[in-house]
Structure formats: C-alpha cells, structure tokens
Amino acid sequence: MKSLTRNTISIIFLSLVVSACASSGVDRKFGDIRDEIIDMRSLQADQSVAIEQIREEMKALTGKLEELEYVATGRTAQLEQTLSTVSRRMPPPAEVPQDLLQMDDAEARRMSPVDRDGVLEGLRALRMGEFDASKATFENYVSQRPGTPFADNAQFWIGISEVGLGEYDRAVVAFSEVYRAYPRGDRAPAALYFLADTFVKLGATDDAVVTLEKLRDDFSRSSYAQQAVKRIKELKTRR
Length: 239
Description:
- By secondary structure, this protein is mainly α.
- The chain has two domains: 28-89; 98-238, Tetratricopeptide repeat domain (Serine Threonine Protein Phosphatase 5, Tetratricopeptide repeat).
- It is 82% helix and 0% strand.
- The chain has nine helices and no strands.
- Helix 2 runs antiparallel to helix 3 (113-127).
- The longest helix has 84 residues, at 6-89.
- It is rod-shaped, with a radius of gyration of 45 Å.
C-alpha cells in the first residue's frame, strides 16, 4: 500500500473534524428538542391540573346554584301559600256573600286540577273585587263545563259579578238562569234571594216581593227562606 501523502491525511483529518462537529451540532439540536418536549409535557400536565380544578369549582358552583334554586323555590311556594291563606281571610266586597265564597273555596280545593285552578282564580278575583275577571272566569267555566256539579255555582257567581259591576239587568238574567236551569241545585235559594235584591236595586219592589215569596214557599228549610220572610215584611212596608 502506498503511503498517504500529507495532503490526503490533512483532508481525512479535516473530514473527521467536520463530521465530529456536525454530529455534535445534531446532538445539541436533539437535546434542545428533547428539552422543549419535556417543557411542553410539563406545561400540559400543569394545564390538565388547572382544567380539573376549574371543573371541580364549576361542579361546586353548580351544586350551590341548584341548592339556592331549591331554597328559593321552596320559599316562593311558602310565600304563595301564605298570601293565599291571608287573602282567603280578607273580607270580600259587600256584594259578595262571604259564607258562600268560603264554601265554594273549600269545594274547589277538592276538584280535579283541570277545574280547580280556574275556579280558585275566579273566587280570588271575587274576593278582591275584580268583577270583570271573575265574570269572565265563570262564564268560561259555564260554557266549558255545563251540567257539572259546580255549574250552578259558577252561574250564580256570574250574577254576583254583574251586581258588583252595576250591571243589574244582566244580573237579573244570570240569577234567573240559576233557578231555571238548576231548580233543585244547592245554589237555587241564594239565586232567588239575590235576584230579589237586584230587583230592589232596579226599583222593581213588587217583583222582589214575588221572588222572595217563591223562595219562602219552595225552599222553606233554607236559611235564605228565613231571611226572605224578614225582607218581605220590610219591602211591604215601603209600598
């Protein structure tokens, strides 16, 4: 083998040096990349922990909100119940017979939800003197639920609402309809009594007396019959 020349040896040496330098540069590059990957993984781990903490905090807040909503709902229902109880204890306007209002309130609470809510709203309106609202409510009941046990009561309250509105002619028709359509209903005696009272408001005293006499004769056991006897005497003295 021929001996290597000085130039050849120099070239080989330089190549080795360059190769070593290149290898060292690559190693450093890979080292930098590895460090960056480690940093990224560390950052991702920190972010995952932070996200999990946020999720836990959101769950806790959601639970607190649900708890507050539950408490608020309970308090609202309690307040509504209290207001309902207080309103039922308030005396109604003079046009509204309180004993019958209380009786129908108790009856309405035994009804199915389909009928109960509307009837209670109508009775509430009567108690508050909101006669337009009570009239509309009971007119709707009569048209939607004719022939039901409460239909004569609803018809009666239409008449009371019209008296409250000063619509005496209409009230005469409403009270007369109670007796015509439900002559043996439990609201017939009251309808005749308030029909007579409406006749008095219209100045038709004779019609009032005739109506009261009918009440006295047809429903002699009714409490309204006893009131009718007294009223007949009062009206006859006015003639």
